[in-house]
Amino acid sequence: MIKALLLIFEPIATWEGIFRARRSLLFILVIYLLPLLALTSAAEGYGLVHWGKWQGEVGRLTKFPLREAAIVEAGQCLLSLLVVFAGANLLKAIGETFHGRNTYLQAFTAVAYGLSPLFLLRLLDAFSVISPWVSWSIGILLSVAVLYNGVPRMMEPDPAHAFGLFFMSALLLVLVSGLVRFVTAAYLQGKFPKLQVVISDLAARLPF
Q1: Which of 16, 21, 33, 156 has the highest CB neighbour number within 10 Å of its CB?
Q2: What does pLDDT average to over the chain?
């Protein structure tokens, strides 16, 4: 979480430190990304159980059972990981169109750290009065600002291609993360009743 804050307030120095550290994919995933996602999921899960979410056309505040909230947050973690891994693939592919020869690790590092403000802002989702689109909008804007320095530093494109690589990768990450946010927000607002039944049945089988 501290690294995510440093990327927001001191992006250039923080990216330089990340570049020089040259961490492995496993290190970034296990030591940085998963704990960040676990923290934000725990916060949102607490909010779902104790404060609930507004659902239905009329708009009633619905609290989620603990088991169901656990499944929902596990699903959100998996979707967030999917965004990172898919985003890294997209960034690597875009880099190749700009005649770059980047590794998947370079792209993964840029995306995992670059999207950390987006994941951090999910802490706001714990509160029922805050729209999920508010947290996503603020988070993705901060992530785009962070990626502005991160993509050129990690991918090391030719100077003439640096802005184009940043712009295309940022645009695709906005679209992918926005699609995931649309799905998760719609579920929490009760717009997928059949899926809710499936998750409720699955939650009933959990041992806690």
Answers
A1: 33
A2: 91
Q: Tally the C-alpha atoms within 13 A of residue 16's C-alpha that lie toward its C-beta.
A: 4
Position of tokens 């995933």?
Answer: 29
If one counts every other C-beta atom within 10 angstroms of the C-beta of residue 189, the result is 16
Residue 7, both tokens: 């990327």
* Residue 21 CA to its chain's centroid (Å): 23
With helix as H, strand as E and coil as C, how does 109-148 read? HHHHHHCHHHHHHHHHHHCCCCCHHHHHHHHHHHHHHHHH
Residue 153, phi then psi, degrees to nearest 5: -70, -45
pTM of the full structure: 0.92
Burial of 190 (0-12, 13-18, 19+ CB in 10 A): middle
Q: What is the pLDDT of residues 63-73, one digit of tens each?
A: 899 999 999 99
Which candidate, 147, 24, 143, 34, places its Cα nearest to that of 80?
A: 34
Quick: pLDDT tens for 147-162: 999 999 999 888 888 8
Is 54 strand, coil or helix? strand
| Both tokens assigned to 179 | 């699609």
d(CA 150, CA 171): 15
Give the confidence band of 101 by pLDDT, cuts at 50, 70, 90: confident
pLDDT in tens, 15-62: 999 999 999 999 999 999 999 999 999 999 999 999 988 886 666 888
